[in-house]
Amino acid sequence: MIATIVNAQITLGSGTTTGAYPIASNWGYNYTQQIISKTSINAAATGNITGLKFYLPAAAVLDKSNQWEVFVGHTTLTAFAGTTAASWIATSAMTQVFTGTITNNAGVVEVTFTTPFAYNNTDNLVIAVHENKPDFNSTSDYFYASASGTTNSSMYYRNDTTDFNPAVPIAAGGRAATLSNVTLLGLMPASAPVCPVVSAPVAAATGVSVLPTITWAASPSASSYKISIGTTPGGTNVMNMTDVGNVTTYTLTTALSFSTQYYYTVYATNAAGSSTGCTERSFTTASLSCPTVSSPTAAQTGLSVKPTFTWSTIAGASGYRLSIGTSAGASDILNSFDLGNVLTYTLTTAQQLTPNTQYYYTITAYSGATVSTGCTERNFKTTTAAIPANDECANAVALTVNPDLACGATTAGNTLGATTSLAAGPCSGNPDDDVWFKFVATGSAHVVALSSVVSTGTTTASDMYFQVLSGTCGSQTSLLCSDPNTGTVSGLIVGQTYYVRVYTFAGAGYNASFNICIGTPPPPPANDECVNAVSLTVNPDLACAATTAGTTLSATNSNVAVATCTGTADDDVWYSFIANSTAHTITLSNVVSTGSSSSTSLYTQVFSGTCGTLASVACGTTNLTTVGGLTPGQKYYVRAYNSNGSGYSNSFNICIGTPPPPPANDTCSGAVALTVGNNFAASPLTTSNAGATTDGTTSCQTSRGDNVWFSVVVPASGSITVETKGVTGSGLLDTVLSAHSGTCGSLTSIACNDDNSAGVYSTVALTGQTPGATLYFSVWRYTGTAGGTSTNGQFQISAYDASVLATSEVSGAKNNIKAYPNPFTDDLTISDISKVKSVLVTDISGRLVKTISNPTSTLHLGELKSGMYLVTLEMKDGTKQTIKTIKK
């Protein structure tokens, strides 16, 4: 924008391009806001704006667009962020400086402020114009405007029928990078800025980069900077007052000449003009450096006769040259051979060297006529081996295709003396020293295998790679890359020729001999697809007497989603079975790998539904996989797949087994009642948790599951001990025992034991319990691996209390008074009833079931249920005697 001074005024914009600011006269109503930057105003100091002048054609008619309200304000905004009602600058943040009728006076509309606006010369300025007279004039009556250089620096509303209320704004119609050609009356423009202080390059600097960075300090009131550079004092033949923007550093993008003196000047500029009298400086650019060579290394031996040269880039260099000779300083092989602007070069077949020969070489850089000098000469010695005949694709050796995978016919190969003829592309490793083979496909897939790798230098089998390509030499597509040993290439066309490139990755001079074989995989198995799934026999138990042999060799991937499975599916085969239970097991056994597969890379997945619309039910490894939630009578599909990648497969046996039903006491509601004895041996129960599921919880061991339940009635003493022991031959080797009070479905854990003092089986001893109350005990299998793996099986459990007398103790007790017969049927006889005052009969739970006052010697107890009772004789002398009896 151009600022001019006429009696303290600043004019912004010029020309006769029309626009929609401050109003668009061919609309009924207008409201606009324009943001003018402080830099554009470029005022000399703070001051009062006394009015505005807008410009338009001298003949423009504004009789229907002449009622204006004008607002002016400060703002930190540089542009309008959007067009919503909230995007306008509020009238409360501005000052209304004019309201009334405007007039076109020979192409100028002057708005004189009722009160001057004090501009702070710090912020940007916003000017808002509201035109609110109904109806409109012609488009030929538009005002003049110019591009602002700032996106969205202005915003407008216009409508033929609806006026705009600036105090209550609504959404705008749009934004623009346009401002009015306007004069700010009352402000004095600033003068041109002073010259910036330049810091780099320093005066008369030498060795400066050909892409130098020029740096200076900011100049007050500058809006941008300009640079001139020439090859003579005052010259501008390189840069002529080039505006580099409002920055304080600038790096040339086009290289200067090497070893050349340049003269340069930096100017500051603003709307008032550019600084004058600025000091010119000079600098001399550096000479053209020698490239740093990385290969061949100094005095390297065993190089190919077509070696590869590699070096670093030199800033400003337009190319590089290579000289090679058979003696120091000589160039009898290549004399300043132009390599072009590259950083690596491999000698061609026409340039190949002689084996077992010492060579000297130098790489230089050039830029135009300037050439780097004094560059270091290096030497290397070529390998003693000649280049193999199949060093190039065009001389690829034909391979015999074997009809199977036995590889009866192999071909010997060697990378010794070979050169690199092709980049790796998508292959592994960084290729070095490659040789070529070819074969004619006899099937849609073939296996390529390297064997008998013998190294030269430090090459190992893991440093050998091969690549299979289609097409013709010089125009090929990579089909397979393998590291190392073997790989299967698929999708081949019978009768078409394919190429195999074998290369090393150990570094220059490291090579190997090898045998290469092309094998033919067998056809895919019959059950390669879901629709041909093999039907499996469902075993009635887990013994898996009926198994089915299978293999993934030559199988293809049927692309079924494996979102919930382990591994990435590759080479899958299919089976099906009819469920006869809600749960079955899938077992893979006798897994034998092909390639580098292992049994842990073979997986199974179970599906419901039909082929093409399958839903995954469960996934597992080669070990036992239990699938629950099945519907008896429904068909399910099993996919066995390998996850090691193409070419890796397994043979195996697959079995469908049926787990046993859960025991009756698998849940609390089916708890088995234990008889309380006076020690473990009194009434042990041999039982099993086979088929049990995990039900409930306990606190003393987190590694537990497959629990079964028992109940015990607390004896009269309030004490009870429950203990587990092992059964010879059982797989259940370690138990966890928990005790609970309450009722099934609302139990409270009151005790827990993992390992008792005798070993890995469990014991819980309780005291202070309520006689007659029922407690629940759960026996869990320890599922961790500490001490060995435990499986479900038989165990012993017993409940006892030392205060409870055994039957043998009753019959053998030496009491003064005896009860007989014991056990009894209906009547119990007391040997000396004369000393007895009363008789109390309680059951084993401690509940009083009968009281006999003034008893006779025969106690009639026929109404009692069969079981154990305690008969307490209350003696006339105040003592008591308790006899344990059993009613048949």
UniProtKB/TrEMBL annotation:
Superkingdom of the organism of origin: Bacteria
UniProt domain Fibronectin type-III: residue ranges: 197-288
PROSITE patterns with a match to the protein in the record: FN3 (PS50853)
Gene3D superfamilies reported for this sequence: Immunoglobulins
SUPFAM superfamilies associated with the record: Fibronectin type III
Cross-referenced Pfam families: GBD_T9SS_assoc, Por_Secre_tail
InterPro entries xrefs: FN3_dom, FN3_sf, GBD_T9SS_assoc, Ig-like_fold, Secre_tail
This protein's UniProt keywords: Signal
Parts forming coiled coils: none
Protein name: Fibronectin type-III domain-containing protein
Organism: Chryseobacterium glaciei
